[in-house]
Design brief:
This protein has about 270 residues and is α+β, with helices and mostly antiparallel strands. It has 2 helices and 20 strands. The strands form 8 sheets. Strands 7, 8, 11, 15 and 18 form a 5-stranded antiparallel beta sheet that branches. Strands 12-13-14 form a 3-stranded antiparallel beta sheet, with no helix packed on it. A two-stranded antiparallel ribbon has the order 1-4.
Length: about 270
């Protein structure tokens, strides 16, 4: 089989993965706090027909070797964690992180992390995500049975400070009551987090251990109440990348056609 057929196959596989990644970015352009993903390509192992630096005789080396490439592949998909734009809302439990950091939430699979701050209350008064995962405070972030941050049903107003302090005012009292302080988490390598859907991420060996902190301190961004972070996907850039990937796929497919025509000529000899 001609080597070009295999090389073209690997190139088409790589461009298909690129198209899948770009399509996923475009599909999540309206997803709260979604972070765009980009594919990272690398060339495959080369076949050394004549190694560079080969010593032809005792006095000279060949100026260039002869190496045959074996195609390309997508080595990784890197998540770009740049901040998205902030949009104001009327929900007092909407929060956005102005900088680095993640909210910690309790899930059936353990503690997960998210930047999607479109929170609400459940029937117990706990602050939860749209999927019902409980937002963790400083007092419960390390607890196995976390109760989270509870806002009583009689609360008339809810205030969230830039440092994550959650307080509320009852109808029969003018003095605010502090419920808890939101636990903020940061990682050495946020790109190494494992995405689980629903805006959730889980710690891995690549991300490093979760570093629990306070909003506005130690490199963690402050919290803005009445705001949500939007997706950082730029539609125009993604469309350009989509067209480029599509054209690269088409050109690689033409390599298959050219190789097929060569094989037909050989078969006619």
């Amino acid at each position: 089989m001609l080597r070009s057929l295999w090389i073209a196959k690997t190139g088409m596989d790589a461009q298909q993965t690129s198209l899948d990644t770009i399509s996923n970015n475009l599909a999540n352009v309206s997803t709260t706090a979604y972070k765009r993903v980009r594919p990272i390509f690398e060339d495959l192992l080369y076949q050394n027909i004549r190694s560079p630096g080969l010593n032809e005789d005792s006095s000279s080396y060949v100026p260039a070797g002869l190496q045959a490439g074996n195609g390309a592949r997508v080595a990784a998909t890197q998540r770009i964690n740049s901040a998205g734009s902030l949009v104001q809302s009327q929900n007092p439990l909407d929060m956005a992180i102005n900088g680095n950091g993640f909210f910690a939430v309790s899930t059936a699979n353990g503690v997960a992390y998210t930047r999607a701050g479109n929170f609400m209350r459940n029937d117990k008064g706990q602050i939860v995500t749209a999927s019902g995962n409980v937002l963790l405070g400083q007092s419960s972030v390390t607890s196995a049975n976390a109760t989270g941050i509870v806002i009583p049903s009689k609360a008339t107003t809810v205030a969230i400070g830039t440092d994550g302090t959650v307080s509320y005012t009852l109808a029969d009292s003018s003095a605010p009551t502090q419920a808890d302080q939101i636990a903020m988490v940061n990682f050495v390598n946020p790109t190494g987090l494992a995405a689980a859907g629903g805006g959730l991420y889980y710690e891995t060996m690549s991300s490093g251990e979760a570093q629990i902190g306070v909003a506005g301190k130690d490199g963690i961004g402050p919290i803005s109440q009445f705001y949500t972070e939007q997706s950082n996907v730029n539609v125009a850039e993604e469309l350009v990348s989509l067209i480029a990937a599509q054209r690269a796929y088409e050109i690689t497919a033409k390599s298959v056609s050219a190789s097929d025509q060569m094989l037909q000529k050989l078969g006619q000899l």
